[in-house]
Write a structure and sequence with these properties.
heterotrimer; A mainly alpha; B alpha/beta; C mainly alpha; A: mainly alpha; 2 strands; 70% helix; 2% strand; globular; C: mainly alpha; 14 helices
Amino acid sequence: MSAWERSLLILLVIVTTGFGLEVPGFFDDISGFLSMTSNFLPFGIVALGLSLVIFTGGIDLSVGATASLAAVIAAQLWATMGLNIWVASLIGLAVGGVLGGINAAVIVFLRVEPLIATLATSFIYTSAAVAVAGDAPPSGFPDAFNSLGSGALGLGHFQLPYQLLLFLPLAVLFWLLVGRSAFGRKLVTVGYNSEAARYSGIRVPRVLAAAYVISGMMAALAGLVLSAYYSAARADMGDVLLLTTIAMVVLGGVSIFGGEGSMGGVIVAVLLLGLLRQGMLIAGFSDMVTSMLTGAILIGSIAVRNLFSSRAGGFGRRLLAFVRRPAVAGTDITRHDAP
Amino acid sequence: MINARRMLVLAAAGTLAIASAVSAQTVDTSKRIKVAMVPKLVGLSVFKANQQGAEAAAKTLNIDFLYTGPVTASAQGQVDVFNSLIARKFDVITTTSNNPTQLAPALKRAMKQGIKVVSYDSDVAPDARDFFIQNTEYPAFGKALVDSVAKYIPADSEVAILSSTKDATIQNEWISALTAYMKTAYPKMKIVTTEYGQSDPSKSLTAGLNILQAHPNVAAIIAPDGASEVGAAAAVQKLGRTGKVFVTGCSNPDAIRQYIKAGIIKASPLWDEVKEGQLVMHVARLAANGALKPNDTFSVPGLGNYTVKDKVIIFSEPLIFTAENIDQYKF
Amino acid sequence: MPARRPVVAPRFAMTRELMLVAVTLGLTVMVGLLNHDFIGAQNLRFMLLNSVVLSLVALGQTLVIAMRGIDLSVAPILGLAAMVCGLLAQTHGLSLAAALPLALSIGLVLGTINGLLVATMDIPPIVVTLGTYSLYSGLTFLYSDGTQVDAVPPTFAAFGNGHLLGIVPVPTPVVVLLVVLALCWYVLRHTGFGRAVLAVGNNASAAYAAGLPVTWVRIRVYALSGTLAAFAGLMFLCYTGSATVTAGTGDHIELQSIAVSLIGGTAIAGGRGNLIGTVLGSLFLSVVLTALVFLHVPPIWYSAGEGLMILAAVQAGIGRRRGARA
């Protein structure tokens, strides 16, 4: 486990115990505590898929829109065409994969930057979601489906939320995929240096396509879980996903430029940011204040990391260099590295 | 000579007066309770007026009062707040809702834990609350909305509706009331479109502009929401249609004063939001004490007597703001 | 030995601007034939006015993108400036003359914070501005407690909707925009700072080696972006007569400003900035959205239209380069 992951884990323990002791209602019993995870695990599901994309040096701004669109399509298939809700959900997952595939196509074939490509597709998917949702967005799903989002499995006198049962195996799967498989290695290599990856025989377009398709499917899954949780599918349901999941991935130690990081860090970051938010909401803080804290932690964590790494060479040194900058370029022979 | 009948009437009146005074003062305020007010969104001026009244009443009723909620008209946001209130073991949750069914699961969970739920203004599913304070009778309000503009436009005009959100309970009640009334009283009048401003002034402005640009023959906009009435009036002003298009809705007097004076809004119905806030607190107190039955009567000093019928309490008649009285009200 | 001057971005032909003007005019005429009101003076004025706030924000964003950065926090900066000025005006009678320096200072401070985090702490701009997005939005909420501003003094409304000094027949905001555009254009094309911005965006290491104060340039560009966004916030307040906690962020003006910069010809890879193109792109967007309303296209399709336009604009890019993101 890297130093970063260890620090995150320690932070997680501190936050959990801190809230448990200080905030009434946070930790009444283990089942209640675990049931809180149902509030933020959809973000975790998206983060798993989004990490793959960020590993390749790309980004997927369309995760929120994909989640909404896939969920709304599945819901309408159930509501207006009478399809079985589980079959509709599987179709929703497939739709997520297709949407991710479209992203990949725009990036690879139209050669558009991932930022712009997914920005554009997010606009298009949002429109489609609003159109499919129509005047009366579907709601009131069967109880069996809703329990996926808000229910739990009873084990003796102890309740394990279904969302947790869904997330944990996925987390392990992704952890193995990135850390222990050939695909994972290819993924990271592409992000580190896509030219070198190509020269070493990696089929870069295929790797990218896989990453975006998986990201789309995970976003769709998150959308379905959210609609189970609220027992309603709305076109704006996924809006809230994007910023927090990027924060979770970056906090987890994955470099936004790609090529660096691990899944373990992301999983801990998901739990950390999720429990932090829940704790603050239960304590009565507004949602916006909680987001402020997330933003501060995001910036703070990278800043701290940079202070101790070779990337920035230390804040103090930089400040000094800024102050002492040479009047004429090239005369400060003590500097070897570029900014 | 002593008129026995008159004496009897006086005696009866006297007893009743004493009795009601006594009953009004017998609201049990011995136990301090925590009551939360969760509006559709915290920033809308009409809800802030509710807050004003509620805060004042809370002081006399030994209530620990909290005003909280989402910053945009979001049912999900309200659910998140309810979860927090349940965990913090509040005694009463009062709310006006963005959506009749989406809040029900969380509120039912609250009720199961012994928390009383009182809805006001925009209702939730009846089995998810203990009592509901209805602003006014819906047909009366629908009539007031239509009459506020119909008097100033030709009988066969095109009219548009600018509402808050698609599923807001109270807006939808008013819209069905006004459409029904319009069909009978002004059969030649047509509603050409319904748009939504999300209870946000700039989104309402955009929606108002969209209406006027897409339907240039619209003669009136009925905007039954605090932000949408302002947005519609601003749109009329921005496109220079003052005098040709009239607006009505239900916004607080401070926000619409300039448009009433400009002649864009001739009449605008509402009710005393500050007093309604006081009533909400009183009902919350009575509910927490277990002192109110689904069919009952009670009175509140300074506000009046109220009847509870099937857990519903009607607050007042529509109060119409016009150029004559707009300066008398400040909220 | 004197410091070598950095490589200046090549002057490119005005094809993108001309294309935008042609497409905008063409669209206006086409819709005008279907609906005469569209081409009437009142609507033309409206479409022009409607594009001003976005243009102001996008000008700052263009400079940031030209420097190979990105600024997502322009949305909450706009919102905070609008809210602070709006609340103070509505409840404490703040004058327009006092609101202007107040708004500019807010933007300057918040933008400088962005710049410091990017330039001295070496945190990627997308991460910094993502973080400050939530920080600044939170500030707006804390300051206003969720209150909505819905009534501004007449001076503010006149600034946002009236004609300059009542005599010049062009709306005040448009005049203001043209002045700001001229200033930015001059800075970018005719000052050392402007050339440095392009050089840093083109190749930061080379710029550093050539002696440019890269860190200082970065800080200033983000400061400028923040200041413009805050000014746009004041303009938003005056134009719409309102402010809410979600002003700016609700419409995702940060994404729109990026879109409009791209449509205007600025490349995401940095090294060049087309300010006039950005303003034209914003006007084009305003015309398209108004046309959709006039043509009774359901509002649900507006978002898709924007997305397709971004893709088309990027596809038609001149000298568009693939490269690392900001």
